[in-house]
């Protein structure tokens, strides 16, 4: 009896700490550091991503299902060193001097390159969830660890996504540009994102993902979509009807006709396996 009385307070304390941690983390992410709000709308300057483009051209392979895979098994120390040097150069850029389109392209390219390097440094793994470098008692994965410093501010993948890209641009299409090293995510692009082509590239990424089995499909009148939409439902209309309204403009004619007959999601799915070629590849 005494043991039960001791266990209950411990469980309550654990639940309280977990809840407090989640609330505090959410509140922190809702604050946008003022430095990232700075931009120069009159700037026509363009950032070069030559090294990152070279990496994508040589190491991103499209499989028969249309999924882009990184050739992690065949990356060598020179490849990783080149990627590190590219990111070191990116860290010297004063991003506040650029226009909004160039800034968004910068953050997307940076996020994807950091993700690839992080996975490469921990490879071989079967899922990015196996990388436990995020600090904190209840934290997992690599998303919370500071990986780069921009303008004197140490940033994690979560910072780039949750505290910069999402709140500043408020564009659901950015979810189709960011790749978190999983088979369930939108493809990592074989082309770097560029400010002067950004709208076109985001639309293309949205169309590709939504019309793939990873994004949305209808089987016997039942709508099955990526769990990405559940995680970020507020970015996609706030509810399932809003999500369907988001999908419609990007859906190809066969999918669009089916979506117009549906008003709810039946299932959310996601594949956490690493988007990697196999060793035999």
Kindly describe this structure.
- The protein is about 45% helix and about 10% strand.
- The chain has nine helices and seven strands, in the order H-H-E-E-H-H-E-E-H-H-E-E-H-H-H-E.
- The strands form three sheets. The protein has a three-stranded mixed sheet. Strands 1-2 form a two-stranded antiparallel sheet. It has a two-stranded antiparallel sheet with strand order 3-4.
- The longest helix has 28 residues, at about 1-30.
- The chain is globular.
Brief characterization of the structure:
The protein has helices spanning 2-29, 50-59, 77-90, 100-122, 157-169, 198-210, 228-231, 240-247, 253-259; strands at residues 60-62, 68-70, 146-150, 153-156, 216-219, 222-226, 267-269. It has 281 residues and is mainly α.
Shape: globular
Residue share in helix: 40-55%
Distance between the termini: 60 Å
Q: Give the radius of gyration.
A: 20 Å
- The arrangement of helices and strands along the chain is HHEEHHEEHHEEHHHE
The total of beta strands comes to: 7
The average pLDDT score comes to 91
Largest sheet: 3 strands, mixed
Q: Uncertain runs with pLDDT below 50, 5 residues or more? A: 1-29
- Estimate what percentage of residues fall within beta strands: 5-15%
Q: How many H/I helical runs?
A: 9
The secondary structure category is mainly alpha
**How are the strands of the biggest sheet laid out side by side?**
5-6-7
Draw up the topology in text.
Blueprint: H1 2-29, H2 50-59, E1 60-62, E2 68-70, H3 77-90, H4 100-122, E3 146-150, E4 153-156, H5 157-169, H6 198-210, E5 216-219, E6 222-226, H7 228-231, H8 240-247, H9 253-259, E7 267-269
Parallel strand pairs: 6-7
Antiparallel strand pairs: 1-2, 3-4, 5-6
Helix pairs in contact: 3-4, 4-5
């Amino acid at each position: 009896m005494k043991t039960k009385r001791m266990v209950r307070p411990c469980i309550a304390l654990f639940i309280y700490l977990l809840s407090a941690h989640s609330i505090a983390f959410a509140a922190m992410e809702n604050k946008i550091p003022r430095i990232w709000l700075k931009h120069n709308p009159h700037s026509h300057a363009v950032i070069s991503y030559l090294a990152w483009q070279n990496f994508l051209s040589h190491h991103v392979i499209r499989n028969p299902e249309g999924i882009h895979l990184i050739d992690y098994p065949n990356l060598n120390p020179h490849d990783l060193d080149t990627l590190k040097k590219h990111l070191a150069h990116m860290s010297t850029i004063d991003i506040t001097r650029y226009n909004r389109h160039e800034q968004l392209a910068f953050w997307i390219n940076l996020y994807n390159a950091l993700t690839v390097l992080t996975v490469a440094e921990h490879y071989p793994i079967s899922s990015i969830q196996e990388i436990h470098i995020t600090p904190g008692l209840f934290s997992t994965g690599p998303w919370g660890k500071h990986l780069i410093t921009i303008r004197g501010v140490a940033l994690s993948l979560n910072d780039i996504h949750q505290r910069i890209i999402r709140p500043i641009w408020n564009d659901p299409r950015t979810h189709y540009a960011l790749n978190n090293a999983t088979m369930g995510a939108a493809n990592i692009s074989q082309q770097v994102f560029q400010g002067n082509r950004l709208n076109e590239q985001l639309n293309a990424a949205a169309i590709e993902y939504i019309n793939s089995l990873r994004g949305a499909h209808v089987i016997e009148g039942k709508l099955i979509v990526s769990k990405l939409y559940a995680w970020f439902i507020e970015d996609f209309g706030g509810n399932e009807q809003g999500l369907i309204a988001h999908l419609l403009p990007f859906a190809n004619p066969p999918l669009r006709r089916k979506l117009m007959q549906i008003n709810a999601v039946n299932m959310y799915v996601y594949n956490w396996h690493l988007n990697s070629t196999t060793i035999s590849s």
